[in-house]
Design goal:
Blueprint (H helix, E strand, L loop, with lengths): L11 H71 L3 H12 L5 H6 L13 E10 L2 E10 L4 H14 L9 H5 L3 H10 L8 H11 L8
Antiparallel strand pairs: 1-2
Helix pairs in contact: 1-2, 1-4, 2-7, 6-7
C-alpha cells in the first residue's frame, strides 16, 4: 500500500507574511487607483475650464467684432468729411467705451468720454483719470448724444476745430497720414492723459485689422 504524504502545515509567521504582502499590494493598488482617478478628474476639470475660457473669449471677440461692424461704416462716412482715419476713430471708440459696454455709451451714446457743461445736455458720472503718474477716481459731467453717429461727428469736429483755448490743438493729428503716426500724435497733442494710449490704439487696430476701414 502507498502511504499518503501528510501535508506540512505552514508556520503561522509565514502565513502572516503572506497576508501582510497581500494587504500591502492591495493598499498600493488602492492608492494608485485613487491617484490616477484624481489625476483624471483634475485633467477633465482643466479641460472643461479651458473650453469655458475659449468659449468666453470667442463670445467676447464676437461682441467686439459686432460693435466694430456697427460703428465702422459710420466712422468711414464721417471721417471722410473731416480727412481723418476711421481706424483711429474706431479704435478710440472701442477703447474708451469698452466696445460699447460702458454706461456712458449705452445710456448716452457717448463713445469717447466727451465732457459737457450744460446740465440739460450732460450727465454726471464717476470716471478714472491719469494724473501725476497715477489713476484717480473723479466725478465729471459728460455730454449726452442721441446716436453713435452724433458722438462720432462731434469727435471729428473736435480735431478740426481744436479746443476753445487752442484752435490748432490737434495739428499733428490732422497732419498724420497713417494710424501709427496719428495714434502717437493724439498723445503729443494732449488728447489723452494715459501714456500708453497710443500703443493701446495701435494694438487694437492691428488685432482687428481696423486699417481696412481706411481704404
Amino acid at each position: 500500500m502507498v502511504k499518503r504524504r501528510k501535508n506540512k502545515k505552514q508556520p503561522s509567521w509565514l502565513i502572516i507574511i503572506h497576508v501582510f504582502i497581500i494587504l500591502f499590494l492591495l493598499i498600493i493598488l488602492f492608492i494608485a487607483i485613487r491617484y490616477y482617478r484624481r489625476q483624471a478628474i483634475q485633467s477633465e476639470q482643466l479641460r472643461q475650464e479651458q473650453i469655458a475660457r475659449q468659449q468666453a473669449r470667442a463670445k467676447v471677440i464676437r461682441e467686439h467684432k459686432a460693435f466694430i461692424q456697427k460703428i465702422g461704416p459710420i466712422a468711414q462716412e464721417v471721417d471722410q468729411e473731416f480727412a481723418l482715419l476711421p481706424s483711429i476713430t474706431i479704435a478710440q471708440a472701442c477703447l474708451e467705451s469698452d466696445y460699447g459696454q460702458s454706461s456712458l455709451s449705452q445710456k448716452y451714446n457717448n463713445l469717447f468720454g466727451v465732457k459737457g457743461t450744460n446740465p440739460n445736455t450732460s450727465a454726471v458720472l464717476i470716471t478714472k483719470e491719469y494724473e501725476k503718474g497715477k489713476w484717480i477716481v473723479v466725478k465729471a459731467r459728460f455730454q449726452i448724444y442721441d446716436s453713435y453717429e452724433a458722438s462720432i461727428r462731434a469727435h471729428a469736429r473736435l480735431f478740426q476745430k481744436g479746443t476753445s483755448w487752442n484752435a490748432h490743438q490737434y495739428r499733428h493729428v490732422l497732419a498724420s497720414k497713417d494710424y501709427q503716426t496719428q495714434a502717437k500724435a493724439l498723445v503729443k497733442d494732449g488728447y489723452a492723459t494715459d501714456p500708453n494710449y497710443a500703443n493701446k490704439l495701435i494694438k487694437l487696430i492691428e488685432e482687428y485689422h481696423l486699417d481696412r476701414f481706411d481704404k
